Structure formats: structure tokens, C-alpha cells
Amino acid sequence: MKLELRDVRFQYPTGVLALDGVSLSIGSGEAVALIGENGAGKTTLAKLLNGLLRPTSGTVLVGEDDTRRHTPAQLSRRVGFVFQNPDDQLFARTVRDEVAFGPRNQRLSSGEVQARVDRALDDVGLRPAIDRHPYDLTAPERKRVALAAALAMHTPALILDEPTIGQDAGGVDRLGALVDGLHAEGRTLIAITHDVDFCLEHFERVVVMAGGRILADGPATEVLKDLERLQQAQVEPPELVQLALGLGWETMPHTPDEFAVLLANHRT
Amino acid sequence: MTGDGSARSDAALRLHPLTSLGFNLLAVVAGASLPSAPLVLAVFLGLLVPMAALARRLGAFLRTCARVLWPFVVSLVLIQGFFTPGPSVLFRLGPFNYTLQGLEVALLFSARLLVGLGAATLLMFITRPDALMRALVERGLPNQIAYIVVTTLQIVPTFQARAHAILDAQRSRGLETEGPLPVRLRAFVPLVGPLILSSLMEIEERAIALEARAFNRPGRRTSLVTLADSRLQALARWLMLLAALALIVVRFILWRAP
Amino acid sequence: MESAVIAVSGLRFRYAGAEQDALQGLDLSIGEGELVGVAGANESGKSTLCYALTGYVPHFFSGTLVGSVSIAGHDVTRTPVSLLAADIGLVFHNPFNQISGARTTVLEEVAFGLENLGVEQALLRPRSMQALRATGLDDLADRSPYTLSGGEQQRLAIAAVMAMQPKVLVLDEPTSQLDPAGTRAIFEVLRRLARDGRTTIVLTEHKLGWLAAFVDRLIVLHTGRLVADGPPRDVLAEAVEHTWGVGATRYTRAALAARRQGQLAAGTRLPVTLEQALEVLR
Fold it and tell me: Exposed end of chain C (fewer CB within 10 Å): N or C?
């Protein structure tokens, strides 16, 4: 199921032009990271992909469907969205009910709903909290509940808005493993993130945005070493890239282990 | 608040906040005391509307009043009309009589609602909450109470902003909000929950934020802005107070209408 | 010898109704003008420490506190919080919730604290604008605080407390919502405040790379205990040997991977910054 923006312009009612002629095509099963400074248009682009916003001009396609002709609720079966602030959605008395909300809207049997809830909470490491009140959890835990709620909907595509914010090292590692797992399952993943190190390690494709336009779009290792473009977008290159460039390398490693392998190759 | 997010209140009206508060309170008292719908409507048209026009917010003011009021007016006209007994029957619907007296009662209540709502809306349009807070504190109201008054007045815009974010989140999880009325009504529950819960959660953190700004510190406070006032406005406030008292006296002693 | 601006001794705290101590016997001494980072896994006690340094623990969050906490000459365990705000500033964790709600523009929001402190009227606007410039918000001075993005709200909270010019500034994950450019701006402001303004600053962070580059001293908390205290490089290298949940910069991880694959001598000092990594791996 492809996701596509064709020459999209988007202007908020206040007059702010958030997207100025953006074209982007994301194939089924791709893992794409959207980076760029605050205000570059990343969240606007993401909200266009699930129909929360409709383009001022241009077309947004989810599969074969024009988002103008569907409600966000209809599109939510195909494109899941995890928001930055989990407190915007938590309303149930238990974590279980919260995570079950999405699947119940999809009219699944109660057995199927339960199975999905269990699996989603396992994926985010919160199964023990299943009967607790969401507001008794800490803020980073609530964020993981929101993630589980989206996972439980089993959408072919999933958009994550700043998933690593507030997570500690263990939380980021867990998230990375989850992203890798979802990618292996064939889900289409789009993540908006400031964490370029996380980007490099888990996403094969990176799109850099600035001022409502796409500045660069390509493989992570290529885009994240293009210092000029990154500078334009006010983005700093990942630590591993800075290290590799500092050592005079042409090829960038994705992970510390890959780095060590490249180091060995360079030395022989 | 203007469309671009800037919060400059209109410079056309440099009213001291207590003057605008007094003005709106007078309108409410008049609306509550006058005995017939046309008189109450005259308060709306003669006091509130011109003030809104002077503040250049007439369009937004009228739209807000209309938008919030119409469901109440419709239910009042229906319920009072059919269930108020009276001699002049306008028409029949099955076993129910629609009386003129019922219609009159409905119109009077509607007019009073219009004035009450209009005054509250107008106050929000022409007075900045923080200016009102400063004015109240200057007059001796404790900081904490002035704060409660001011934040209560701001509840609607605060809720609106949050409600929008919450609506987006729930729609993205399959909550259908477009379509026939029953669908839209059912959408309410997953919206109200987060709004209330997160607002309650916020209270504790908001209290910490206030402490961090020395809100409860004893001692002298200074002010970024000096509130514009004049003898004319002070006089006007006294006159409005007298007028309000007079209306109350007259209503209870002379008119004795419902 | 510098007298300590922050002097904590034997600090233990348990929240009311909790089964375990949130902080277990902390000793900490920080001098004027130091910029100290605090790292640790979530729920290791970082936020509780921030509250303890500013008096919210025990005055706001009930519980039992043992030990002494002296900040900028105040015994914060006894002095009410309302009397501390002039000298001790707190920017706490949740960025979405630090708007006072009492003011309608960003500028007034920043001036609010100064008004409460009784700062003379002529200084209110200049000091507020200065804080807004330092945090890159001067363009937004006339906007309503409610229309700001999460990152902008976070910077506003920092500006509002900075404007009050406290002697001690405590910040709990102040850059969580910010992009790298915003994060850099805040770290630079904090460094300037510490070096030139002689403000004593304590900040908790997950972003180790930034801590390693900007702070002179790093503390690690683990299940309520202070387990490390020293220069960032030493502390983060030590963290690798333990399960404190602090993580490591990619520079450290690259060096560790190199060591595992026999590309780096076993005794080499682990790097935490780019410069150190290049030195070690060239």
C-alpha cells in the first residue's frame, strides 16, 4: 500500500504556509525518517497522510484513495498515528481499555481484541500495567501506552511523531528493537524525529525538510553525511557520521558494530 | 484573540477592566430584572451590540451568541410553548396545545439567556484577563482569588485548543466524527474524558509552575502595564452601580413579574 | 576554597504512601558557577532530586525527608517555597504545563515572575526581552502562550525562570521537546549563565552527547542513589561497566565495538566526545 503526496501545498487558516509544493512517494514496507527543525512542516506532512488535514492544493493518496474523499477515521484503518503528547488521547480507566479502543472501533471479536491488546503491551513492555489507570503511570510510560494503542490496530502503515522524546536509554533501545521488528513484518513506517542517531540506526531512508519543502530524500547513510544540506535544515549529523567523516571515510556505518567492521577494513 | 495568534486587545477601547466588568454586570442585572422580552432584547441591542461594535468585534460577537444560543432557544420555544397552560391557543398538535403564553415565556427566557451569554462573551472580548486580574488585585482582592476568576474566564479558549488536539488523536484511532448526528454525539465520550482528566492533572503542575514564578510570595508586586483609567470612567462606574441597584429595587418592589 | 552553594547531606526521601525511598542517602556539594549534569534511567530519582533542591520536596509533595539540604543559604526543608523563588529557580519536567495562565502574551508571561518579585517597573520589559532573546523567542513576544508549539513552550518556561535571575537554577530535562538547534541554544545559554553570571546550574538530561560536551561535572543516579560524580568522560566510561541504564554516546559505543572486534587495545580510555573518539581511533 503506497503513500503519496503529489505537489502538495498546505496553508493553515492563520495564513502560515506549512508545505510549499511537496511531492513524496513511500512504498509499501519502507521505513522512512522525517527530519528537520521545528516548524519545517514535518508534522503537517504526517497529518496529511492520515487525513487529519486535507491539502490546500495537490493530492494525497493512501493506496488508491484520495484523502479528500475519506474521513480520518476511515483512513485510520490503514494509517496509524502516534501523537507526541499521549495525554491528548488517554481517556479509559485502564490501560487495557485504552489500548482496546482502536481495535474495538475496527469491530473485531472480543477474543481478537484481547489478543491484540496483550501483544501490543508486550511489544512496549507494559503488560504488567494492563489493569492500571493510565494516569497512575509516569509520562514516558503513558507515551508507551499510546504507542501500544496504535500498534493494536495492526495498520499496514504507522506514523510515529517524536517517539523517543522522554525515553531513557533502555526505552530508546526497546523502541529501536520494536521498529526493527515492525519493519521486518513488512509494515510501512514513518517517524518524525530529532534523534538523528536513532534515525541512522533504524531507518533505511531519510527525508530532510526545511521551510515547508523537501531538501533531501535518500538512503540514510547518504543523506546524513550531506553536511551542506543538513546545515541548511539546521540538523546536526549523527555521531557515527561525524566520527566516520573525521576519520576520512567515504562509507558511513549504520551502527557501532558496522563501524568496527569498517574500521578493520580501513586498517587492512 | 486575533487570527494570527497575537493577543493584542483592541486599542479602540481603552476601558479600565472594572469599567467593562461593571458594564456587563449592569447588562446582566437589567436583563434579569426587566419584565418583558422586548425590553430585555432592547438591553442586548442597546447596550451589548453597540459596545461590541465599538470594540470592532461585532461579527465574532454575534456569531458566538448565535452559535451557543440556538439549541436553547429551540428547546425553550418547544417546551414552554406546549407545556405552559394559558387561554390563547395558537395551534394544536395531537393532544397538545401550543399557547401564546408559553411562547411569551419562552421568548422572555431566551432574551434573558441572550443577555447573560452576550455579557459574558462581550467581557471576554473587550477585557484582557490579566488586566482584569491586575485591576482586582489593585482593589485589594487576594492574588489567589483574582487568579481563579481570571483562569475560569479563560476556560473556554483553553479547552477549545486542547479539544482540537484531543479530537485529532481520537479520530486517528477510528473515532468517526463526521456524519449524522448520532455518530457525532457518540464521539463525545472519548473527547470529554481526556479533556477533564488532563485538565485535572494539570492543576498540580500548574500550581508548581505558579510557585516557581513566586506567585505566593508575600510583599510588594509591580506591574508591566499601568491600567488606563479616568475620572470619567470612575464616574461611569458609580452611575452603573446606581442604575443596577435601582433596577433591582424597582423589579422587586414595583414590577413583580416572573 | 569555594563554599558550597548547594550542600546536601544524607538526603533520604520517600513519597507518602510509597514502598521505597525515592532518594537514598545522597551527599552532594556544588560550588558557585558550576554547571552540573544529572543522568540516570527514568525513575532513578532525577526529578525527585530536582524537587528536593528547590523545596517542592517536602513542601509540595508530601513524604518523609531525612537529612539536610542547604541551597543558596536557605534551609529548603524548612523555608516555604514562596520565599525561595527569588534565589532558586525550577524548570520542571512537563513542558506543556508551565504556562501560568495568568497572562495573555509571551512577553507578559515572562514578566509575570518579575512582577511577583517586585522588580521595578522600568526593568520589567528589558529583562523579559533579554530572556526571550537568549532563548530565541523574541519574535514571539506578542503571541499568546497557548498558540506556541511544545518546543516553544519549553523555551518559554526556561526564559520565564531565567528572567528572575536566581542564584541557583535547576532544570529537569529542559530540552526534551527541542530540535538540535534549540538544544544547542539552551546549552549555550546555560553555560554562559554559569561562567559569566555565576549562576549555579543543575540539569537532568538524557542527551548524553550534549552533557558530555557542555558540563564539567556529571552525576549519575540509580534507584535513588548517587552512584557516580565526576568529569563526564570518567563517569560515562564507568557507566559502561554497570547497569545503571544511562546508555552511552555513539562515540563510546563505537569504541566498545572496536574493542570487541580487536581493533582497540583493551586498556584504552573510552571516548565520550568526537574529539576524544578521533584521538583514540586514528
Answer: N
Q: Put the strands of the sheet holding A79-82 in their side by side order.
A: A79-82, A157-161, A188-192, A31-35, A205-210, A213-219
Taking CA atoms, what residue in A is nearest to B5? A14
Residue of A nearest to B177 (CA): A73
Start-end of CATH 3.40.50.300 domains in chain C: 1-87+198-240
C124–B5 C-beta distance less than 8 A: no
Digitized pLDDT (tens) for each residue of chain B, 258 residues in all: 333 333 444 444 678 888 988 999 999 999 998 888 899 999 999 999 999 998 888 998 999 889 888 888 888 888 888 888 888 888 888 888 888 888 888 899 999 999 998 998 888 888 877 788 888 888 888 888 888 877 777 776 677 777 888 888 888 988 887 777 777 777 777 777 777 777 777 788 888 899 999 998 888 888 888 888 888 889 999 999 999 999 888 888 876 655
CB contact under 8 A, C257 and A260: yes
Q: What is the ipTM of this complex?
A: 0.91
**Burial group, residue C17, by CB count within 10 angstroms (0-12, 13-18, 19+):** exposed
- CATH code for C1-87+198-240? 3.40.50.300
Q: What angle do CA C115, C116, C121 make, to 5 degrees?
A: 25
Domains of chain A with bracketed CATH: 1-73+157-172+184-236 (3.40.50.300), 89-154 (no CATH), 238-268 (no CATH)
Most distant pair of Cα atoms in chain B: their distance: 70
